[in-house]
């Protein structure tokens, strides 16, 4: 028989569990963000394929409908249709990229990586914040390529305008990625996630004002656009672009009427605040759902 060792002679190694704190939580979020960046940079096919749909909207739809609706030269009034569509196409690109970045956490659950992250001595909030910031960064980087094409549709190359657009794009992407995380909290399979995302994304896109002006709409459509969080993220993009076009007041009133709550015109700063509020609420709901699910 094998003689058992004396328990007193066994050496006990101390196991150090890092204490939870702001620095630890921030480091955890940064690691998740870094993982999203590595996945994005290694997938060049994803970068190129993500541009296909925005380019179709911008050049094919914009040029085709512009020639149909305009009286001459592809213009309606003093603004070309592709110029009008440019901010909306940026928003559409962000919508699809950020939503699928958020919903991709279903893959992490299916392959077991999500459980490994959740058992780490960090909070669920840090993990989801890192995921949301990573998805927002990916969506913003992809929009940089679209911004490089601004001159082709009559949008001036203004460095300050581009900086403002990138900040607004990042905020919008964070909100949509948080929405994707909230939807993914209860989904177990990728096959279930894809139809769910499409079911949510398509109404958000068409009811955001990305493809049409918000003025002179039927009452029912006005109500739907006003309750859509995407509307309050798209309108600041359009306002920033139209502020640099030098368009006539009549064209501004037609193509960039803003969001109206009755007689009150919602200012841009309030639209941005509402987008931030939506982002925080969606992320909080995602954290709560993940804690109950996992």
Question: What report would you give on this structure?
Answer:
The chain has helices spanning 22-42, 44-49, 52-69, 81-103, 105-110, 113-118, 124-147, 159-184, 190-206, 219-226, 231-242, 249-255, 268-293, and strands at 75-76, 79-80, 260-261, 264-265. Helix 4 packs antiparallel against helix 9 (190-206), helix 7 (124-147) crosses helix 13 (268-293) and helix 8 runs antiparallel to helix 11. It contains 13 helices and four strands. The chain has one domain (23-293). A two-stranded antiparallel sheet has the order 1-2. Strands 3-4 form a two-stranded antiparallel ribbon. Residues 71-75 have low confidence and may be disordered. With 294 residues, the chain is mostly helical. A hairpin with a 2-residue loop joins strand 3 and strand 4.
Question: Summary?
Answer:
The chain has 294 residues and is mostly helical. The protein has one domain (23-293).
Keywords:
294 residues, mainly alpha, two-stranded antiparallel ribbon, 13 helices, 68% helix
